[in-house]
Amino acid sequence: MDQRTKKILAILEKEYGDLKPGLTYESPFQLLIAVILSAQCTDVRVNKVTSRLFAKYKTPEDFVKLEQAELEEEIRECGLFRNKAKNIRETCAILVEKYGGQVPSAREELMSLPGVGRKSANVILSQAFGQDALAVDTHVFRVSHRLGLARGKTPLATERELQQVIPRSQWSQAHLWLIWHGRQVCRAQRPRCDECPLQEYCPAGQAEEEGA
What we know:
Blueprint: H1 3-16, H2 28-37, H3 43-56, H4 60-65, H5 68-75, H6 81-99, H7 107-111, H8 118-129, H9 138-146, H10 155-165, H11 171-184, H12 203-211
Helix pairs in contact: 1-11, 2-3, 2-8, 5-6, 9-10, 9-11
């Protein structure tokens, strides 16, 4: 790891410390459902829905018994509710039939579940199973590119580049630091470069300052 990257990570750690995931969950299964619901939806809204949902339905078997229309109504606030309800029911059926009602802890098996892509699988591996994984969402993609930590044109290429420059032991926390920094400071529209503690290490921030 070069000195510039080390400085960036040290500043992010100082600013954000030991962050906790935004989604509320008590088990790998609850996190899996929350992650499926989180597509194009805020963590706050998902948590509101799941607090009600998990009070009624505890296991994959419970969700399998639900009719499509019933589940749609339960999760309507999360948006894309028809497709999400379909994915949740199909995923829960697979968990019951293939995994004894348990959530698998291997990336390939997670990605075989409806509604679970690589980013979602990495979130589950990292947060539910304590494995070293670096999920690349829109915030991580944007912030890492602005900082010059990655240049890949896809989330997968960006993930692989970040894995090369960030120590494995920091992957899970760096993921959360970059998300939080993207939400609070390095926003997609009108980034707050003048308030950013990383500006001197950020090519995009330096260009912004020079153009001001």
